[in-house]
Design goal:
This protein is an alpha+beta fold. It has eleven helices and eleven strands.
């Protein structure tokens, strides 16, 4: 059975929810963002946690207010509700709810909506309740929001790590392949954007990293493994440095213009760690591909001095770009 609900939310809230849906790759077959599929997962995986957070806060406030004899129980509940409606909401979403979204729900997500309708709307509208739930969700760091949306995957991975069990899975980017690995660590990227599974291949003992939100067909086998201390140490270092890549580090020297220095401070996503700095010259020990991908965003405000292989790669990249714009066509 399917039901449709029209919910009104602020435009900036919808924009952030769309950003999460895109980052977590909830896409339709035509390549557009599938906001409805994302919101269904949000409802199912966050509803109980949201209620628990709200209930714990309410109990704490009522306990504190109970220490004042002059406040009646009824007044205490009213004050507590007012405080919750203040602290459970973000200031970012106090604007008018001027954007309508249609939630099409079924199965577990329909059960959640009916539970809200039947039990939790005594003094609040359905749109307001969903607004508060979305606002609470968006107040959480993005890597933790990813844990909410993909709760089942994270729980199974963590259980396999604790029990030292070999796992198999495919990924949304390579669904025709099956990976068999020893899971060691789940680590968030430096910018707290995404989480990665750091593991070793059971056949070649090579180290790998997989974005958790892209893991599909996850299965925990009955086979146990003995952790390798050397692999674990290497993966811990990767988790600290850049969990999205297991490539070896290269020593690199990069010269920046003054505007490049400003960009380096502003562009934090996948930014490499600085070993040392001499004026506008920066020294790094970082994976080659990750370093190049980062500084491609700087244009003529960054020059990789060394190693030569990085210089050659950047020359090729900008040369191809120049050729495309000169010919005014992609091929």
């Amino acid at each position: 059975m399917t039901e449709k609900y029209k919910i009104y939310i602020p435009e900036d809230m919808k924009s952030r929810l769309m950003n999460d849906a895109e980052l977590f790759e909830f896409m339709k077959k035509d390549g557009s963002i599938n906001l409805n599929a994302f919101l269904k997962e949000l409802l199912v995986n966050y509803f109980d946690e949201y209620r628990d957070r709200k209930a714990k806060l309410l109990d704490t406030i009522l306990t504190d207010l109970g220490q004042f004899p002059s406040i009646s129980p009824d007044d205490a509940e009213a004050i507590a509700d007012k405080i919750i409606n203040t602290y459970m909401k973000s200031d970012k979403y106090r604007s008018d709810r001027n954007t309508a979204i249609t939630l099409t729900v079924s199965g577990r997500s329909l059960d959640v909506m009916r539970a809200i309708e039947n039990n939790l709307l005594t003094d609040i509208s359905l749109s307001q309740y969903i607004n508060d739930l979305f606002s609470s969700y968006l107040s959480i760091a993005r890597n933790n929001r990813e844990m909410i949306i993909f709760r089942d995957t994270f729980e199974e991975l963590n259980k396999a790590i604790r029990n030292k069990r070999i796992i198999t899975f495919s990924t949304s980017s390579a669904d025709n392949l099956v990976f068999t690995v020893k899971p060691y660590i789940i680590a968030a990227s430096k910018e707290e954007q995404c989480n990665y599974l750091l593991c070793s291949d059971t056949t070649h003992r090579s180290l790998h990293t997989y974005r958790v939100s892209r893991i599909t067909a996850l299965y925990t086998t009955s086979d146990c493994f003995i952790p390798d201390d050397d692999d674990f140490q290497k993966l811990q270092d990767i988790a600290r440095r850049n969990p999205s890549s297991t490539s070896r580090n290269i020593d690199a020297v990069v010269q920046l213009t003054d505007r490049g220095v400003h960009k380096f401070h502003m562009i934090v996503k996948n930014r490499p760690d600085v070993l040392r700095r001499e004026g506008n010259t920066y020294y790094f020990s970082w994976p080659k591909r990750a370093l190049e991908d980062y500084f491609r965003r700087f244009g003529y405000d960054a020059l990789i001095i060394s190693p030569e292989e990085c210089q050659e790669s950047m020359r090729y990249f900008y040369g191809r770009s120049l050729d495309i714009y000169t010919k005014n066509r992609l091929k």
